[in-house]
Predict the 3D structure of the following.
Amino acid sequence: MEDFTKWLPSLLVVIGWIIVNHQNNKRETRKECRSLIDDAKAAVIDVAAKAVLYHTEAKKELSVEILAAIDALEIECERLPNWVKGCPLMGCHAAFANAMTGGDFDSAEVEKKAANSPQVISIVRTRTEMLSELERIFRVHYLGGGSKPS
Amino acid sequence: MTTKHISIATDFSPYPSGRYRDDGPFPGQAFRQDILAPALRDFEEVTVDLDGTNGFGSSFLEEAFGGLIREEGFSLDMLKRRLHIKSSRQSYEMRIWGYIDEAVLH
């Protein structure tokens, strides 16, 4: 008993250090992931704005930039947990890419479309779905909460 | 077994874009009619490598791959057995099979 009380303060210090270290690591991982998610969300918003401009103003010169940005966004997504074939985020990315580059994208004559045209609405809707899915990933993997995708 | 590997970047163009031949020099229709469909007729298995390009719009991919069902008369079952997609960006494979599935439905 005497031996134990002699070692108790040191033991408490070690246990305390382990707990604090674990919490620090968790916080750092969460901060890194938050930053990854924020970068991906910024990329989504940026490319969606370009795609809307492409279709509403018939700015064909944005095509190359939009296509490259779609691939760059996928590279960002690959760094997130659970990026595997058929995962919900990949589904959102595919739908988003389809919406932005569908219709008369890259055709000889690109028609200027209204801001409430089906194509633009589809871009905005899939952008929102992509943003929601990114937040859901953060919630599920780093905050330990949130609902699973349907 | 005869197999064919097609790299879009080297065998077609690093800058594929558009749906129809009128849309530009390297559209999905030209890739399908000139390269992909003949390869699927002549070889038992065909792998299409998507890497090395500037990316693909839906119009190109839908016309090139969905068109295999719609225009060339290939069946979904045959394509599932004989067509393979290779890309370092996994979502392209998902998109391409989505276009093929959709072409079957319409």
Remarks:
- Chain B touches chain A through 22 residues (CB under 8 Å).
- The first strand of chain B starts at residue 3 and ends at 7.
- The longest helix of chain B spans residues 90-105.
